[in-house]
Amino acid sequence: MDLSIAAILAQDGITSGAIYALLALALVLVFSVTRVIFIPQGEFVAYGALTVAALQSNRFPHSATLLVALGVVCFIYEVAATLRSAELRHGAARSLPLAALKFLLFPAALYFATRAAAGMALPLVAQVALALAIVIPMGPMIYRLAFQPLAEASILVLLIVSVGTHFAMIGLGLVMFGAEGSRTTPFSDARIDIGSLAISGQSLVIVAASIILIVSLYLYFERTLSGKALRATAVNRLGARLVGIGTTQAGRLAFTLAAAMGALCGVLIAPLTTVYYDSGFLIGLKGFVGAIIGGLASYPIAAAGAVLVGLLESYSSFWASALKEVIVFTLIIPVLLWRSLTSKHVEEEEE
Amino acid sequence: MKIRFAAALLPALIAFAYAGNAAAQIKVGVSVSATGPAASLGIPEKNTIALLPRTIAGKTVEYIVLDDATDPTTAVKNARKLVSEDKVDLLIGSTVTPNSLAMTDVAAESETPMISMAASASIIEPQDAKRRWVFKTPQNDSHMTTAIISHMADAGVKTVGFIGFNDAYGEGWYREISKLADTRKIKLVANERFARPDTSVTGQVLKIMSANPDAVLIAGSGTPAALPQKTLKERGYKGKIYQTHGVANNDFLRVCGKDCEGTWLPSGPILVAEQLPDSNPVKKSALAYKTAYEKAYGAGTVSTFGGHAWDAGVLLANAAPAALKAGQPGTVEFRRGLRDAIEHSKDVAGAHGIFNMSPTDHLGLDQRSRVMVQIVNGKWKLGGDAR
Q1: How far apart are CA A28 and CA A45, in angstroms?
Q2: Alpha-carbon gap, residue A110 to A126, rounded angstroms
Q3: Which of A16, A49, A136, B347 is the most exposed, fewest CB within 10 Å of its CB?
Q4: B195–A316 C-beta distance less than 8 A
């Protein structure tokens, strides 16, 4: 292993690390705001990637159909919840049309737009935008269906629901996209040569996108009101409710952001590798390792941990490729050991 | 009360009416991996089962298809359900080796013959009290490895780098290749592994290229095997690249694109059925399968994996008349007779080759069951020597 190989492996590791960092941040965000360990995060990656791939090969992405179906079910839930509670019934004249707009009209409009677009040859930016528009609304809808009714349940119950949602989404992914995988065309075929190191334009796009996203997330949490509201909910749910921050809305926002980051990751990795309906899980899991390194609480450490996972994976695939997965996932054990020895034990009931 | 009593009696009466017919029906239980990691193998197999004959030797044939999601525990559960509740006369399954190995116990216990669609030779070798009930239709890895090694030796390849799946498939291929490579004086200079969902194999490819082999063998199946190929081409590898028969489907061509130009792989003849010379004994039966599948599912959809399910049906159709002499369907005598009849299959032409089984060989395929294929202009092209 000489310097040029080490440099190539480092580039590779940082590229995958950037993807894992985005997923780690999404996982930390969702956990800190809603206490849900969001295992289906990887599925959004797969859905985003496969939707773009379907659009590029002029096939209709059935994720649009899933969006419509989820919208209909959410709407039915909303109507049932509104009619059941007396106080909500008073505002029904205003809230139900709004719900219809969100859950019925928007997905339907998107469905027909996709039908029209599937035959045309759209520019790459339009394809990516359409794919993101289809996949991102699934986040809040899944929150509404699976997690909102259980918002006060214990972390274990939420984890089990999370696993169930993951299985459901994987099965739906198989139905929508088939068993075989797809790739998409790269964003850029550029290759920049620095000495003996050839940096591909694709990796630069990925790292740049990750950095921009991380910085925007930071600015969002620091400077905007809704960002601060999310942080408040993350610190103390009850306190946030007392000062008038709606925890349901916070949860919905967190899931929307998580779906957005997941879908974006999918769009970014689709040109690099073949994505299958079930490959999102393993990618999400490696992001989860990064999130664990951050203790599911700290964003910078989670991002750094995820980059470390990417680098470790890259170097161990050179030295001992058969043991690559083992090495990456065994990283969790010393981290957990160190964390459990150094941090105070917090009772979950203390709210 | 009287109505309820009559209502309870009605199903019993209907059951009696049908009981007579049920005995004349041959029941085939199928456990296939239509979901999970082997879905791209299992779905064509499941589609093919729908095309198998519905009457054989005057008896109607019923196929009960269950999905085992590429999970051995579910495969065993399916097998138990099929033999104890549905009382099937033949088990077909499963798509992958671990599932088939697990189902062997159930087949042997219930004395039900089983035809597996999975590739490993360990399913039927060595023959013993349990394995005598199990047959398989896919070519052994050794058929394919001998084809590859002879092609390599003829092309003057002296050193080979290996990169394969880090599971039983990759491991099995490595073992077979290392055994044969020694005999043909070919040296294996690199042994790397990768996982199916990996986003990058740069490290492995760099290690292989630093050993500078004349040829690289990629032992993966389905579209993941395109990743090392694309990475090798990206890194500027100029030697020959060989793939295994696991990639013989059109999705692989779609994903691999230009990077797969000139790749060699062994395959069952079904992949290039129209290109076979008319004198080739497998051409007719392979084309029969291809026509039937594409008529039902569309042009260009045929897959070599579905061919293994077709061959199981062909073996059943060939063996059922002899088995019926031994007993009626639904009885253990029929199942024993069916096992014996399948074991004595002679010159049965299927989609993948000609089957000649014997008590020591429960596969029965020979050199006619594989050809070397090259990817030219994004299509499969039959290689020069069809041996």
Answers
A1: 16
A2: 13
A3: B347
A4: no
Q: Computed over its alpha carbons, how large is the radius of gyration of chain B? A: 22
Q: Which residues of B touch A274 (CB under 8 A)?
A: 223-224, 226-227, 255
Distance between CA atoms of residues A132 and A55, nearest Å: 12
Q: What is the pLDDT of residues B330-378, one digit of tens each?
A: 889 999 999 999 999 899 999 898 999 999 889 988 888 888 999 998 8
B275, part of any domain: no
- Mutation target vs A (from B202, B252, B259, B297; most A CBs, 10 A cutoff): B202
- Nearest by CB to residue A322, choosing from B193, B201, B202, is B193
- Radius of gyration of chain A measured on its C-alpha atoms: 21
* Structural domain harbouring B199: 142-267
A227 burial class (0-12, 13-18, 19+ CB within 10 angstroms)? middle
Residues ≥6 apart with Cβ < 8 Å to A237: A247, A351
Taking only the tens place, the pLDDT of each residue in B246-305 is: 888 787 888 888 888 999 999 888 888 888 888 888 889 999 999 999 999 988 788 888
* Cβ contacts of B37 on chain A, cutoff 8 Å: 278
Residues B241 and B339 in one domain: no
How many domains is chain B built from? Answer: 2
Judgement on whether residues B243 and B175 belong to the same structural domain of the protein: yes
Q: How far is residue B69's CA from residue B67's CA, in Å, rounded to a whole number?
A: 6
Q: What CATH number corresponds to the domain at position B133?
A: 3.40.50.2300
- pTM value is 0.80
Are the beta carbons of A274 and A181 closer than 8 angstroms?
Answer: yes
